[in-house]
Amino acid sequence: MDLTGMKKLVGATFALLALMLAFAVPAMAEATGESGASGDSGEDILRIGWAQDPQTLNPFIGLDEESYTVWAINWDLLVNFSEKDLSPSPGIAESWEVSDDRKTVTFKIAERNWSDGVPVTSKDVKWSLETLGGEGELFTSYTNNVTSITTPDDETVVVKTSRPDARIVGGLFIYILPEHIWGKVPLEELTSTYQPDLPLVGSGPYIVTEFERDRIIRMEQNPEFIGGSPSFDQVQFVKYGTQDAVERALDLGEIDSVIEVQASTFESLGNKENIETVKSPSPSFTQLAFNLCPEKLCPDANRNPAIQDLDVRKAIVYSIDRGRINEIANRGTSFVANGFLPSFYESFYEEPEEIYAFDPEKANQILDDAGWTREGDGVRTKDGEELSFNLYVRSESSGNIQAAKLISEMTKEVGIDYSVEVVSVDKLTDLTIRSKDGKPAPDFDSFIWGWGGDPYDPSFLLSLMTTDEIGGSSDSFFSDEEYDKLFVEQAGVFDIEQRKELVSRMNNILQEQVAYVVLSEDPNLQAYRTDRIANVAPACPEKTGDIICEQAGYAPLLTIEPASGSSSSDSGGGSGAIIAIIAVVLIAGAAIIIIRGRRRRDSEPVEMEEEE
Amino acid sequence: MSGRWLAGKVAAAVLTLLFVILFNFFLFRVMGDPTTQLARLPRATPEEIEKLQAQYGLDKPLVGQFADYVGDTARGDLGTSQRSRRPVWDEIVDAMPWTLLLVGTGTVIATLLGSWMGVIAATRRGQKSDHGLLGFSLFTYASPEYWIGIILILVFAVWIPILPSGLQVTPGVEFSSFFAEAVDVAEHLILPATAMTLMLLGQYFLIMRSSMVDVLTEDFITVKRATGQRWDRVVRKHAVPNALLPLVTLSAIQFGAVVGGAITIETVFSWPGLGELSFQAINDKDFPVLQGTFLIFSFAVILANLAADILYFYLDPRVKAS
Fold first, then answer.
1. Which fold has domain A284-521?
2. DSSP 8-state class, residue A546
3. Domain A10-70+204-282+524-588: CATH superfamily, name plus number
4. Which of A62, A312, A318, A457 could form a disulfide with A67 if both were Cys (CB 3.0 to 4.6 A apart)?
5. What is the DSSP secondary structure assignment for residue A563, as one 8-state letter?
């Protein structure tokens, strides 16, 4: 290829591009005209952006948190969570009755159809509870007390349990799937590679009609839905590469809502025009955990035994300013925690008797009284033992790392030395689940990590502190006889007030023993465009909850509506004109290149420099 | 002789590929066992974890896992994604066209534009246009591609909102025709392809420029000039063909950078290609997908290098002679 040949080629390429664009302009205008925020037929679409999307819609194998967001819109539970306070409210079952011995619950199924027109029956319930409850990776253990599920007729389901289990009402977080579809698939396939056909037959207000992994999930209105009439014709979940890209898209109006805003950008996003941010509590928390495993259960645990000294833990908790950690590490987006059970559990939460408000002097006093002495600003010691601990923290959480550093600074003030070790999730998991000779052998003094519970029933979170869970989910290896007894008792109490009292007692035991220092209750951080979505009312729970009842239900989707005049907003608007301008510039450029190439052919040679 | 040379090159390529396959397996095992993640899964009992491990084949010893992996790969089975439970090959096939479109557009424009600029700069060495082009190229060459991407988004999507900030197509729109969709995709392609072009441009420019400068100072150019041929003809007929050689090698070597660039550019622009697939898979520790995409990337780089060797063979008589 020679010089002018190359010039010609470049010129031609530009000309071709320009030509393509020139042709594109009318089509472009057409496309943006009919697309925009509303679809071909002027449909109102709610666009939600996220950076993580579900990898599969099959609940037997899905492991993503985001899956719940979609499932919770597509399917009802047997008993839904009320948008008011997440307490039991009619779902597939319109009513239920608990027997006197509390071991039998009889559910009445409402008369309604699946989105494909097939009636919902008790068979669907039985199949779902038994099969999804028995085999779905995320759903087992909800039914571990269930002894039988019978269906005397199409409208009745009777669930019997070996012992009273309050989760049967309000805590059976198992989606009810249409048996006439899922029941035909061999179990082997359901639990391995099965990808459900679309539309995803469901009972909720919207059903999935398009699922392109890593791109989009489109949900359209369920024609058979009886619980109300949603205003948006479609709900779309749009996948972006990064969380920054999602938030930028919201700012640019490419999407209408973001359901997981970053703590670092939450405030600045809220200052943008037409964007409202919502911070709501969630059943998740971040805790400082201690290695409390009793000697007889964990003979080979590796830790500084001083961490098991209650006085030391009390000094630690008094020396930590949780408010400051929230301000700095979480940029003020979390809720300062007072005790183990998150206040999110409105039905069961009561502030514990002892909340350990920040008081370093008291911490010093406790340690002085307990005989931990210190020289100057040094580390306290007693009988050759030193208050030096490791504090593991996950590398992926910058907030947790910051919290760990703050804790290290704060405890230093009272003579406790915390060395922060940033490790991978795998490493931290290995340290906590390490075992030797079939017995747990946790290898840490402290770490920072978090847990998330169910929307209503506190049993899962409470179970983390039971002796039974040592070797299972327990990561503090806490063990207390009375706590264990109360745990079993509360699990069988259907009466909310009565159960609340038991749960409070448990919460107080954990506080008294300083089993965890729960640093913060994690929030749901969301944002939406006020020029696109109107009538937003936080729900789940009422007033303080989030904008779509994420993962817990779909009630807000029935009340939010498109903001007036919003359907004309389109980020691509006017791009036709811009493209025309670009095309003109390109054509001009190509012309200049070609003309100059011609002229150069007749001109004098360019100056040559002498060889150096 | 030439047949043997070719065979040698192909054999080397195949050997490299085999090594990559071996290396690939162990590389991702270093990242840890994905089931330790599942241990943290609320409510997962040890039996369930064992079941999962069995499903993923992770219950076997490493040697057994490796044997499975090699056997499957040889049969063209890249395994099943641990997250989506879809065949890895399907995921790659879904993502590949988007990467080819982005990388193809970027490479073609960068090569043409870069080498053209190189010729211009070399023939005007020391002049203002040379300095300008050199400065510009060094700047784009030195800037990280994701940074270029973010700046492009900032300028053309945020400050002057004329182009979409990401994705490959306007989400959820049903297009009236293929043409309308193609236009929409083209509009989304502009920024990422520009980032790709700017990332690659500098090298093509610099190599072409220095190669041209070398060639232009060679005696045969002076001789050609002395014969009274027109200058631009000398450049066109004698200098450029000789200067193009290093560009061929560069294109092949660059391919590795292109792949790396694709990962970051696709992530910045939410472009659903192989790069973004890999990025997601890294986040998810989805080994089979990572193995698959890395295999494809390596295969592409090896193939590009082999192609460059062969092309060189035909372009440069000196290679044949040796």
1. Dipeptide-binding Protein; domain 3 (3.10.105)
2. B
3. Periplasmic binding protein-like II (3.40.190.10)
4. A62
5. P
CA A362 to chain centre: 37
A20/B52 CB distance under 8 A: no
Tell me how far apart the alpha carbons of residues B142 and A526 are, in angstroms, rounded to a whole number.
37
Tally of CB atoms within 10 A around A468: 13
Element (H, E) at A386: strand A385-386
Give the Å distances, CA to CA, from A102 to A133, A162, A485, A498, B296: 21, 10, 18, 14, 59
Contact indicator for A31, B175 with CB cutoff of 8 Å: yes
| Prediction pTM value | 0.81
Nearest C-alpha in B relative to A32: B184
ipTM of the prediction greater than 0.85, yes or no? no
Q: Which residues of chain A are in CATH 3.10.105.10 domains?
A: 284-521
* CA dist., res. A89 & res. A97, Å (int): 13
CA dihedral A366, A369, A375, A379 (to 10 degrees): -40
- Which of left, alpha, beta for A264 (phi over 0: left; psi -120 to 50: alpha)? alpha
DSSP conformation class of A38:
B
What tokens does B167 get? 């994705």
Helix (H) or strand (E) holding A486: helix A481-491
Q: What is the pLDDT of residues A311-355, one digit of tens each?
A: 999 999 999 999 999 999 999 999 999 999 999 999 999 999 999
Partner-chain contact B186 A24, CB within 8 Å: yes
Task: For domain A79-187, give its CATH number from 3.60.21.10, 3.40.50.720, 3.90.1170.50, 3.90.76.10.
Answer: 3.90.76.10
Length of chain A: 612
How far apart CA A560 and CA A547 sit, in angstroms, is: 9
Question: Coil, helix or strand for A183?
Answer: coil
**Where, residue-wise, is CATH 3.90.76.10 in chain A?**
79-187
**In this complex, is the C-beta atom of A1 within 8 Å of any C-beta atom belonging to chain B?**
yes
Q: Which residue is associated with the tokens 């009810």?
A: A176
Q: What is the torsion angle, in degrees rounded to the nearest 10, for the CA atoms of residue A300, residue A303, residue A309 and residue A315?
A: -160
CB B277 within 8 A of CB B95: yes
Does residue A185 sit at the B interface (CB-CB below 8 Å)?
Answer: no
Backbone conformation region of residue A376, classed left if phi is above 0, alpha if psi is from -120 to 50, else beta = left
Task: Identify the closest residue of chain B to A255 by CA–CA distance.
Answer: B171
Structure tokens at A527: 């944002």
| pLDDT tens for each residue of A463-520 | 999 999 888 889 999 999 999 999 999 999 999 999 999 999 999 999 999 999 999 9
Q: Closest CB to B43: pick one of A141, A251, A604.
A: A141
Give me the residues of A, 510-549, that contact B with CB < 8 A.
none
